[in-house]
Every structure is written in C-alpha cells, then in structure tokens.
C-alpha cells in the first residue's frame, strides 16, 4: 500500500496514479533532466482521504516523512534549519488539468527560524523576509481561505506610511514588521498561531489540496468536461529553487514549437530575477527566449538541449516551465502544449515527416471539432481579447461575423444592397427570413436550439449563427436589443463568435484562415483510414460545390423545401398550396417544374459522378403562406379570389403541432401531384444530364416521415407511375433508387417491412430524437438548457446523438432492414452526421455513410478515420 512516490520512482505511464504533473516530473527526472527533487502523493491517497473522513492517516504521514528525509539528504538541507533550510512547493496535480482546484503554495517550510537560515544561505535578508511575507499570505489564502485583501491592505498601508510606490522599495526591517502583522491576521482569522512546524504546514497544505478536489468550482468543471468525480487529485511536493536570487537567476516558460502556427522554433519568454508568478502576472515585460543566449549562453544551450530531448521523448510539442538559480537550470514542468488548430495540423504533419510519430498517431492527435477553426474566417485574436462581451447563446453555427444589426429580413437585404455588412437579429427565424439570412453576415436569435430553423439553415449555409441567446431581449417592433442594462439599436455594430456562442459589442476585424498544404496532406491520410463515406446536406449548387471542396463524396440530403423559398418562386408555391382544385394546383406545379428541373440539373453537375439523394417536400405547408393582411391581399388579387376566402383557407391550414402535422409523406397522401412534380423534375434532369455525357447518373429519391410501410407503398406507386410516364415521353431511361428516411420511431421498429419497399434508409435523427424523446424540436431549446445546467443531460440530444435510446432505435432498424434486404444502403442525414461521437457510433453501427452540412464534412471525415484507429 504505497501512497507516496519519489520522482525517481514514477513514470509518465503512471498518470492516473500520479496525476499529469507528477507523472511528467517523474519522467523528466528519469531521463536525466535537472528536476528539483521531490515526491508525489497519489490520487489513491486522495480517495482514501475522503474514506478516512477527510483526515491524513498516520501511516501516510510516516510515508511522507520518509520521503521528506530523502529529499533533505539529497540536498543536504533540513526543515527549520537556521543555516540552510529546506523549502518546498506544494501543488495539486489531477489526471486532467483542472482549473478551479488549489494551485500552488511556494516556499512552504518558512518559519521564524528558517527565515534566518534563508537570509544566511542566500546572503540576502530582504529576500528572505519578503519570501516569508509572501508565504504567509499564499498559505493563508490558498490553504486556509483567509481573504487575500486582509494582507494586501496591510502592504498598501505600509507603503503609504513609508511614502513609496513599489513593493521593492520596502526594506528588510519593513518586511519584518509586515511578517508580524500578517501572523496577527492569521491568528484573528483562525484563532491559532501561524503554524511554525513545517510538517504541520505541509499537512495542512496537503489537506487543502485534497479538499479542493471537491470545491464547487472543481465539481462544476468536471461536470462540464465529463471528468469522473472519483479520480481524485495527486499532490506534488518539490524542493524550491529560486529564480529571484539576483541577476544570475530567472524563470520562464517555453513551447518547443510555435503554438499559434506550429513553426518548429523555440517559442517563449523569461524574466531575470523573478519567480514563476511574476511571468504569469504580467507586471514586468518578459524577454524573448532567444535573448537568454546573450545573457547566459551556457544555460541557454543546456535549455535548448533539454527541450529537444523532451520533444523527442514525448513525441509532441511541449510546454515547459523552467527556473534558473544562480546559473543552474531546473525544469519544473512539462506537458503537451495547447495549440490552435492551425498549429495542431502543422505540428502533427511535421512530426510524421520527422519520423517521430505514425500517421495514425497524427490523426488521433487532432480533435475533429477543432478543424472548424480552419474553415471559417476568424477574428483576429488580439482584437477579440479586447472586445466587450455582451451575452452568450448557443454556438449554433461556427464562424465569426461582424455587422450592423437589423431586425427584419428585408432590412438586411436592403443593407446588403447598400454595401453594408449586417447581422440579422430575430426572436427566432422562420422560412420567411431566408433571404435575410442569405444576405446577413451572421444570425442571432433569442430563442431556439441547436436544431432550430436558424441553426440548421445557418450551418447549411456555413454562416455564423448564435441561437437561443436567452440573455438578450429582442424587441422587433422597436428595433432594439436589450441585454442587462444596455440597449443596442438598429444599425449599431455587434460581432458574433459562432463557435463559442459569444456576442460582442462593436466590430472586430477578421482574418481569412489558409487551408495550408499540410491540411490537404493530413486529410489524405484521414481518407486512407476511414471506412465510412462522408456525404453532405446541400440544397444549392453553391453549397454542393463548397462541400466537394471539403471532400464530400455525395449528397446525402437535398432538402427540396429550401428551394421553394426563393422570392421568385414563392407566389407559385403559395398558389399551389391554397388552391382548392386539382386543376389550379397543377397549374401552379407546372410553373414550378422547370425551376426544380434546373435546380437538380445544376446540383448533379456540381456533384459530378457522386451520388445525390433528393428528398421530396417535407415541411408543414402553412410555413410558406403569407401572414400579414397586406401579403394575403396581394396573393388574393394575383389569384383572383376573395380576400376573406383566402384568409379562411390559410387559417384552415394552421396547425397546433406543425412538426407532428401535415408534412412529409402525409402531404403526398393528400396531394400526390406535388411529389409527382418533384419526381418528374428529378428524373427529367437526370435524363438531361445523361444525354450530356454523364452516363452514370443515379438519382436517389427519398421519401420523408414514413411511419408505416403502407404510406411508403402508396407514395412509391404514385412516383413510380410518374417515372414511367417520363420514360415513355422521353423514350429514354435512367437507373434510380427509391428509399426512405427513418425518422419516425414506428418506422425504425418495423424496418423489416419498410425495407420491402425501400432500397435505402437514411436516418433522420433530428426527427427520430424529437419523436423518440417526445421533445419538440421547436420548443425544447427553452428547457433543455436547464437539463444541461443541472447536469441531467450532458449535452442536448439534438446535438450529440443519444446512443442508448435513439441509437437503439437505429440499431433495431439496421438489423431489421438487413434481414429483409441484405445489401440495403444505410446513411444518416440528421445533424448528428457531423458530430464526432455520433459519427463514431455510426461507424460501429455499420452505416455506409454519414451526411452533414458542408462545413462539417472535414470534421466527419476525421471522426470517421478516428473511429477505425
Ligand atoms: C431529420 O429529421 O433528421 C432530417 C434530416 O430531416 P429534417 O431535419 O429536415 O426534418
Ligand atoms: Mg426530418
């Protein structure tokens, strides 16, 4: 039962026992780098601490003492020594780095005796008492929760009394007085003397680290980041070295490569005569690391060698902390350096080229969602850091956008015509806002979730969107946003970070990311490994072409309703819907046919030989209809019918639950001629493109919202009749497939029957989640955030596929579908098709492809490769 490990007893493989920091200190020690000696108290000890009712048990204390003695012997220093005292740092170190936990106490071991020893051994009394003063404050604040201000105000008073500005202007006599005052504060707060016994100091510090594992901040952080609560934290106790002992001492931080762009060149900074916090605190301006070469050439070359050794050893870019004490170099920490996506790709590819890692390792190093950063224009980092945050919403569609705010689609369109950049701000968007969404730089809504209209459409367009931003109040009538105590008026600038969901005041400058050669190279490796194909959800030739650039291998979902919102088409669409006779409806459909045929032709063209799945019309019809009296009047006039009649007809079409209403195949049951028109357009366009030389064209016609095979049978018979008609008229043929979405739970569990009619399935996990959970897609955003904040759901199931429940429905459908039709083609086209953990699930399910919005295609490709490795 060993709970304490000297650094020379551990290794980097022991991370779960020693924590990240402890494991790396051990590893550095063992590969012969200069690490100040010390030891790690394990995460298991932390768990035990809680089992023991939050006490340090006697045998643990004995073990700690034993290791302390070893450190004392190695350094020939002793706790409380009046000649040459041992001082240590105490740091927490969990398996995953965790802000919110206790961080660091320096100079532990200082007391009334040791301070004299420190003065002697360094020949600097002022330094010794300053260290003592700082230690009392740090220990009291970090370990004993005594407010820092109690000490800081005394320091300020002292400076005022002395008539000086800087701490450094106080002499050792002043500092001695301060030490006594600080001890008094400790007594007032804790009703006991400041502990003089270093062992007692150490025990209290260790207890504080263990207890910080369960402080509220740490618990929330774990919840948010999916870190189990029973891991515990380790404690690292390490002998102090001093970077603040004069001009031959210093401290710094360096990355082995540039964390912004990955350039293979040492990157970092240092301060002469300083301790670690001084670099972080940013009070003095640090020097660039290369300048160390001129100041201490020996130490510099030693450091450079150490960084190379570490990078080779860890086979990754490292972030290293070091201290120089009287021209002696010490390494205090190493870890994998945090980096931008751009740097991550460059480093991974370079490391493969340098034969340090394999392609597989390189692929696993990149977090798929990180690729987002590379695909969208981004804010210039410094400008972003200076910008004022006004609210946070859902990161609905990544990207960075700045513009003047407008509250109506028309105003956005008009602004664009004037050459202005604008942001469309709406309570929530509806299909009527499409034109405005197209014209806007970005979209901000106060309501709606990750699959709300705004989110889905914006992602499809690759347009930045922050949705469900409930902190703001959108007053569309007065054309203002109210947030906290501020008002932002129409025409004022805001900026949106769609990857973080953050809303800023004002305009922030942007830079265009480059898709570097290394990115291309990396993605070809990704494609060598993955089995899943990646298609895209695209409704326009432009989106389709963009997706091809990003590597899409086909269209998995072309939502044809999106083609109906066009300004020029909407009158015909409206006439089609409100007409009461078949004859009238056919007339309207005849107008739409050539437009649809052209749409499909251009999409086939953009996709080349790649497969294209076209889904027949899905949304609730009333979405297309005018709402204001003015609009109704003008439609009535154009149709030559009475205003009142039209108004009645529109009211008839309204539904209480449109998402569960008259949509998808249900429309085709009522009005088969709509699907017939669309099918005709799909097939005629295919015949046209075949004639132009694309022999392999194979349109895939997809029928939405099937719940029962009888619905499918009916619709399929209608459209097959239409196809035969076209073939006869044209005296030509093409191959085609007819399949269905699996998005109604009943379809999933009767998939064996459905498969008798369907040649392919595409999982519509948006609706499957809606109907499987019974969460309305339109409304659930309002309360799902409570589920998330209360930890009931980690993530909204509309965002990350619920593998247990909704995934189970998919699994059942896959099994049943294959029973009937062994080679049935299987895909997914819900929003989950671009979410990495859901992609991995689809790989395991054995689907043939995932389909996602163009900008998520590279992410899905990488996730699919990682699923194999
Ligand atoms: C779905 O339901 O998952 C789907 C792709 O269709 P839509 O989002 O258009 O309803
Ligand atoms: Mg659907």
Automatic annotation (TrEMBL):
Query: What cofactor requirement does the entry state?
Result: Mg(2+)
Top-level taxon: Bacteria
Q: Which residues form the PEP-utilising enzyme mobile domain?
A: 420-501
A Gene Ontology molecular function term for this protein is:
pyruvate, phosphate dikinase activity
Task: Identify the residues that bind substrate.
Answer: 559, 615, 743, 764-767
Q: Which residues form the Pyruvate phosphate dikinase AMP/ATP-binding domain?
A: 16-54, 62-290, 301-344
- Catalyzes what? pyruvate + phosphate + ATP = phosphoenolpyruvate + AMP + diphosphate + H(+)
- SUPFAM superfamilies given in the database record: Glutathione synthetase ATP-binding domain-like, Phosphoenolpyruvate/pyruvate domain, Phosphohistidine domain
PROSITE patterns xref list:
PEP_ENZYMES_PHOS_SITE
Tell me yes or no: is Kinase among this UniProt entry's keywords. yes
Residue numbers binding Mg(2+): 743, 767
Q: Which PANTHER family does the protein's record reference?
A: PHOSPHOENOLPYRUVATE DIKINASE-RELATED, PYRUVATE, PHOSPHATE DIKINASE 1, CHLOROPLASTIC
As for family, the record states: Belongs to the PEP-utilizing enzyme family.
Protein name according to UniProt: Pyruvate, phosphate dikinase
Where does this protein come from, organism-wise?
Acetoanaerobium noterae
